[in-house]
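re: that chain from earlier
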Amino acid sequence: MPHFTYVAPDSGHHRRRHDELSTHHHRAGTHHSRRQDPQRVDPPDFRFCVELGLVLRSRKRNHKTVTGLEDELSKQLTRAGIANHLASTHTSPVSSREWTIASELCIPSRPTDHRFGMKLVSPFLRFSKRPESWQGELRAVMDALNTHFELTTTHQCFTHIHMAPASGVWHLDQVKGLAKSALYFERCLDALVPPYRRKSVWAKSNRNNFYFEGLRMAECFERVDAQASFEGVGARMNWCSAASPTGVALGATPGADFQHDAYRWNFCGLTADGLGTIEFRQPPGSASASEAIAWVMLVGCLARLSCGAGGALKPAEKPQLKSLGEWLVYEAEWCGIPHKGLLKDLIKQAVPVTPTPGTLAGMDADAITIDEDQRLRWKANDRNVVLEKYRRLLKHV
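^ sequence. v structure.
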């Protein structure tokens, strides 16, 4: 990946340029003929928040309502030493330092079987500054869930990862870099998820949205680069046709196209002054800590690579998952992220995307179910727990 990231000034040692990784016969100590270096700017450290959408059932009690399950879930997490609270009991903004437990409207529940769609939203955690801490916290949460509850992952379940610079504020060039990476590597990332997450109404294609569809990659890049505001980038990345299944479900006026957050990459949360999170929504539900950790590692490393200054992606060249995987693992190694083997395993299990003849790979489904139609309308007015956490976080940054 032709972005560059460099050692921070106080790190005390020299870091290899990332483009050396692609030449496997060179060793770290091999001398190269020197070209003029690009501008050396270290990428930001990131904070992230992960949303775990799962179907849960208690192993001990047959809860008839989601309220009873929420109460038991909160008690079990508390006993495991995990600070948490219920969204349903917080009329004020939820804490950015505790886990939040909430019901999830996009995941169908089965009360007769005592199973309910639930969402657990993490605190905002530092990605590369204290990686052992966030990995340990995810393990503790998943251990408590698997010990006391039956976890089921349906097609509607998810692992959403929100990223924001540790300072709380984005630079426009960083957002543009991540937007171009999202478009360029979409097919590669599609290969890492189950087929149903490539056609999900909850994670639509940015590359084939109403704004970019039919354009060459170079033209997509030009349109991203031409944006003079954070909202402009967000509008292009998340532009939805009023005539699309999502638009029809939401009752959009014909011709009145609009922004919608349910794309693989959600840029809708960015404000005019560079505040907000960028969210990756495509991963399926994580039933284990290993799965959740691998997805966070992938998104965090991709964000760092995308926001590094220097080179640029080459839109005329076809992206390769193998090369992307090498860059991501290298970045994880450089950041000192433990257990990078989980990231390697995620990349190894990739299944190439084979489009149906006559269709574009990654294109959204032509229709949505009646249930999805209803849930899209419900979600339009759902409480944004992550946004509340982010606003609370800014007070402490």
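The domain at 46-164+377-394 is CATH 3.30.70 (Alpha-Beta Plaits).
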